[in-house]
Write a structure and sequence with these properties.
The protein is an all-alpha fold. 57% of the residues lie in helices and 0% in strands. It folds into 2 domains: 94 residues, Orthogonal Bundle (Helix Hairpins); 84 residues, HscB, C-terminal domain (Monooxygenase). Helix 2 runs antiparallel to helix 3.
Length: 214
């Protein structure tokens, strides 16, 4: 297996390279071009040396991801780019920011992975017109809205944190086995639990938070 280069090129190369494709598109071990990454994962080769799942775990090392994000941003900073490359530098910096925002969050990460396969979680959500899941979501929302004190809310928060953790574990297993249908269904569930989380935060701020129509 070819070694993966985990070092970013000098800043002059980042902004002067012409967009290229892999020299050998059929090789899974072909090095990625930092000047034109194919996915968000390609922007962080130290954190994701094997690329996206199933070749790497769904849940990354967040400390390593943060470290590599800071390194990548320091090298791609527009102020370091040649004058005629500043617009390209700004675009790359913005892409790095967006990639980090997505990959550090399990829901956004799952949605990104599914979108890479042409699956829209919004479409999957629209298929849920009733059933056990929506009943559970509505009951959870009502419990938050009717909470009378911090102690009651803390119990609801703990319960919802467990739901989120359970969903992440299901996503880890689904992506590890390439089960995109299961991953899509669980991403819908996770989105509801994250909305409940926002509703809890809204209670703490003294205002409600929408759940079903997020």
């Amino acid at each position: 297996m070819n070694a993966v280069n985990t070092h970013h090129p000098p800043i002059s190369r980042v902004f002067s390279e012409k967009p290229t494709r892999h020299q050998d598109s059929g090789s899974k071990n072909s090095p990625k071009t930092f000047g034109r990454p194919e996915t968000y994962y390609d922007l962080f080769p130290q954190t994701f040396p094997s690329g996206p799942p199933p070749h790497t775990p769904f849940s990354p090392d967040l400390k390593q991801l943060r470290k590599e994000f800071v390194q990548a941003q320091s090298k791609a900073h527009p102020d370091l780019a040649p004058g005629d490359q500043k617009h390209r530098a700004e675009a790359l910096s913005a892409r790095i920011n967006e990639a980090y925002r997505v990959l550090q969050d399990p829901l956004k990460r799952a949605q990104h992975l599914l979108s890479m396969e042409g699956i829209n979680v919004e479409d999957e959500s629209a298929k849920l017109s009733g059933g056990e899941l929506l009943t559970e979501v509505m009951e959870a929302r009502e419990a938050v809205e009717e909470a009378e004190d911090e102690e009651e809310l803390a119990a609801l928060r703990d319960q919802n944190n467990k739901r989120i953790a359970d969903s992440v574990r299901v996503l880890e297993d689904a992506f590890a086995h390439g089960d995109l249908g299961r991953a899509a269904r669980e991403a819908v569930r996770l989105r509801y639990w994250k909305n409940i989380e926002e509703s809890i935060h809204g209670w703490e701020r003294g205002r409600g938070g929408g759940v079903l129509h997020h």
